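Re: the request from the purification team.
They wanted to know what the chain is likely to look like in 3D before they choose a buffer screen. I agreed to run a prediction and write the result into the notebook, where they can find it.
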Amino acid sequence: MESKILAKVIRGETVESIHRGHLIVVDGDAKTIASLGNPVIVTFFRSSAKPFQAFPFLISGAASAFGFSEREIALACGSHSGEKIHTETVKKMLRKIGLSESDLRCGTQLPFHEETAKKLIRAGEKPTQLHNNCSGKHAAMLALAKHIGADAQTYKHLENPTQQAILQCVSNFTDIPPNEIKTGIDGCAAPNFALPVSAMAKSFARLIFPPKSFDKELREACRRIVSAMINYPEMIGGTQRLDTIIMQTLRGKIISKVGAEGVYLAGVLPSPKWKKGLGIAFKIEDGEDKRARPVVAIELLRQLGILDAESLKQLSPMAIENRRGDIVGRVEASFDLNIATENTEFTEI
């Protein structure tokens, strides 16, 4: 199946560009609620995998052993903006495990937060690894390595027990055997996972509505991850970041996690309408992150009935401005979901 047009870029009243992609929504039983394009296409999980990369850190007992707070657990699941609240939290995480910024292996990165980046430049300072959007995840990986006695110097290598535990976790949530999951190296130098978009949706559905096959320990870890993301949305992204805005607007109803190259994942918590919750996944085919992804995510939530009229007011449509600041166009979603009902014959993924 070909990709579908998910968003259009309109200047004046003329369509100037289009963004195509693949989309799927599943419920807690892994039944397809809606889909567009080719939802079994394989792509990288990218940073949307972070909640699962944090699981072994919880299940092993490392988080408790080092006294990590819920806010710090949230940061381990996030792609933070490099603001002071984020860098100071990573410092605390590293101090708790007796390590420092130099022990990270994620590389340096200019903060996503524009004002923080400008401050560094004005002060003649260079960004550190603490500013890397993945530094919280890497601090959690280091904590896991130290707790289980793995080599902390090579914690980012796929063969290290730290990464093998993460690979097994991804397998548990997607039902894909570890030896069938292809890997690549992410922007932060850690392994990442190539999976069908549908498997990603299933993983988030299981995260917010764990199946009975999960043992008590794993179900409790799901609860802790979801709770951390909901209670500290500012640690998942930051100022004016999509994940943070969505979770703050829909507080207690959703967990949201972007990934690079136009990947988006969300878990809608159980509600009267969606009794077993929903797992949402889409991939913008051309990898566009800033224009297509926000409008597609917001429109998808609207069509699923997650966003009400009041919430929609807070999530304004994306305008296109010229260099004078005049609004000269817009980016708008361009798809209609055929949403399954109770009488629909479901397809299991």
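For the purification team: The first strand starts at residue 4 and ends at 11.
Please add any questions underneath this entry.
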